[in-house]
């Protein structure tokens, strides 16, 4: 029996701990029921599975390597560090696994259009990419402030043929983009598919995103057995909404010898309140139609990595924390930046700032472990998108040093 106890309505651990579920108005409920029925059917459909496998292999470039970071391991002098190379996927991150899976479902459901929300633009670009591939009209909602901060990603989406709508209410960032996308979906669900970007949101999204992202952990498990003849001692990943993490974790969840650690962004420090670490500091509550750990002060939500900047977190991570199957810790902006620079110098791999949180945790932990132990880190994406930001931060840091 699995340690993961989840009802058919997507409620994790009903009774003692309950996370997930669906807290939505009637119009959305109908849309989500229809989506759930399609997902339940196609996830067991052989033809669907074959088509998904085809695109994973031929379009995304899977399987990607489980790479032994030998120089980093030697420098740290402890456990062997392996990197699961999601950064080598087409479009440069794990997000494409999920967008390919969902667009195939959209096609099966005869959707006339796809909509999605995006914060920094990464999920918007991954969605626009698969809509170009499958010739489906695509509308991306993005906070107006974010469209200005991430003008290049707006242009990328437009080049890929998507329409980008700037959300102009409230703070004009991710939350408003989600609100407007949900309104669109509730009104148009008969012919519209809402392609959600992480393992969050009302049922069935968390289970569906986990299903498509689990390829990360299935591959990593097989590759580790091939290379080392045994399972890893520790697996770790950064947690924003939690999709790359649940993709790595889920296939190992019933292997009790494998320790699981999720890494949240501590931003400017957990004590400062300026972070995005709901599992480390928050309380169970309802946000965006589902129950999970939620940050105390969502207004202060911040991370050096835009992709981790979310005040809630996936319900399955909330459940793993509650039952003690996984541990959740945090890494602050400064530590993530140092890991970004260290991996670049030691391995010639520039990681995304998001992934750098997991790298930093592995760097901190490996020296405390034995040399024959094994760590697998999800390298969720590549850092090309972050180079200009890091340049500015290092300039500012230099200025501080000169003034000191
Ligand atoms: C979006 C993103 C994340 C965070 O999303 P999860 O759903 O928590 O995985 C992490 N890494 C990269 C590279 C991203 O683009």
Task: Give a description of the structure.
The protein is α/β, with parallel strands linked by helices. It has 2 domains: 22-54 and 94-209, 3-Layer(aba) Sandwich (Rossmann fold); 63-92 and 214-403, 3-Layer(aba) Sandwich (Rossmann fold), CATH 3.40.50.1100. It is 45% helix and 17% strand. The chain is built from 16 helices and 14 strands. It has helices at 26-42, 46-60, 70-76, 95-108, 122-133, 144-149, 151-159, 174-188, 205-213, 215-228, 243-249, 278-281, 315-323, 333-347, 353-365, 387-403, and strands at residues 11-12, 19-20, 66-68, 80-85, 113-118, 138-143, 163-167, 192-194, 234-238, 259-267, 283-287, 290-294, 327-332, 374-379. The strands form 4 sheets. The protein has a 6-stranded mixed sheet with strand order 3-4-14-9-10-13, with helices on both faces. It has a 4-stranded parallel sheet with strand order 7-6-5-8, sandwiched between helices. Helix 2 (46-60) packs across helix 4 and helix 5 packs parallel to helix 7 (151-159). The longest helix is centred in the N-terminal third of the chain and has 17 residues, at 26-42. It is globular, with a radius of gyration of 20 Å. It starts with 10 loop residues before the first strand and ends with a helix. The mean pLDDT is 96. It binds pyridoxal-5'-phosphate. Pyridoxal-5'-phosphate binds at residues 93, 95, 122, 198, 238-245, 307-308, 352, 354-355, 380-381.
Keywords:
404 residues; alpha/beta; Rossmann fold; 16 helices; 45% helix; binds pyridoxal-5'-phosphate
Count of helical segments? 16
Question: Which spans have pLDDT < 50 for at least 5 consecutive residues?
Answer: none
Radius of gyration: 20 Å
N- to C-terminal distance: 59 Å
| Strand content bin | 15-25%
What's the CATH class label of the largest domain? Alpha Beta
Strand order of the largest sheet: 3-4-14-9-10-13
Structural domain tally: 2
CATH-defined fold name of the largest domain: Rossmann fold
The secondary structure category is: alpha/beta
Ligands in the structure?
pyridoxal-5'-phosphate
Sheet having the most strands? 6 strands, mixed
The H/E string reads: EEHHEHEHEHEHHEHEHHEHEHEEHEHHEH
**Arithmetic mean pLDDT:** 96
Tell how many strands the DSSP assignment holds.
Answer: 14
Helix % is 40-55%
CATH architectural group of the largest domain: 3-Layer(aba) Sandwich
């Amino acid at each position: 029996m699995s340690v993961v106890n989840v009802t058919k309505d997507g409620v994790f651990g009903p009774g003692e701990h309950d996370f997930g579920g669906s807290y939505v108005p009637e119009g959305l409920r109908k849309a989500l029921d229809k989506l759930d029925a399609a997902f339940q059917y196609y996830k067991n459909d052989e033809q669907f599975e074959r088509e998904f496998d085809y695109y994973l292999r031929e379009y995304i470039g899977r399987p990607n390597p489980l790479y032994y970071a030998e120089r980093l391991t030697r420098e740290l002098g402890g456990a062997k560090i392996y990197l699961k190379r999601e950064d080598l996927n087409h479009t440069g991150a794990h997000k494409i696994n999920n967008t390919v899976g969902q667009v195939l479902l959209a096609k099966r459901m005869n959707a006339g259009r796809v909509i999605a929300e995006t914060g920094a633009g990464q999920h918007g670009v991954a969605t626009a990419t698969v809509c170009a591939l499958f010739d489906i009209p695509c509308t991306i909602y993005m906070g107006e402030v974010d469209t200005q901060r991430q003008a290049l990603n707006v242009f990328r989406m437009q080049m890929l043929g998507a329409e980008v709508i700037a959300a102009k209410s409230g703070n004009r960032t991710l939350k408003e983009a989600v609100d407007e996308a949900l309104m669109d979906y509730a009104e148009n669900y008969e012919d519209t598919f809402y392609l959600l970007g992480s393992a969050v949101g009302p049922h069935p999204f968390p289970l569906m995103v986990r299903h498509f992202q689990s390829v990360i952990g299935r591959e990593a498990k097989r590759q580790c057995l091939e290379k080392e003849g045994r399972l890893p001692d520790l697996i770790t990943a950064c947690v924003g909404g939690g999709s790359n993490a649940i993709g790595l974790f889920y296939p190992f969840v019933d292997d009790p010898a494998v320790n699981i650690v999720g890494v949240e962004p501590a931003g400017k420090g957990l004590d400062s309140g300026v972070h995005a670490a709901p599992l480390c500091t928050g309380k169970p509550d309802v946000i965006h139609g589902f129950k999970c750990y939620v940050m105390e002060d969502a207004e202060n939500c911040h991370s050096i990595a835009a992709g981790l900047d979310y005040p809630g977190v996936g319900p399955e991570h909330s459940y793993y924390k509650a039952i003690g199957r996984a541990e959740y810790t945090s890494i602050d902006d400064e530590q993530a930046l140092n890991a970004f620079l260290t991996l670049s110098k030691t391995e010639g791999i520039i990681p995304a700032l998001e992934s750098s949180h997991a790298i930093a945790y592995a760097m901190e932990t490996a020296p405390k472990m034995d040399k024959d132990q094994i760590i697998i880190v999800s390298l969720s994406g590549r850092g090309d998108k972050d180079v200009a930001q890091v340049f500015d931060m290092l300039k500012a840091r230099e200025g501080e040093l000169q003034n000191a």
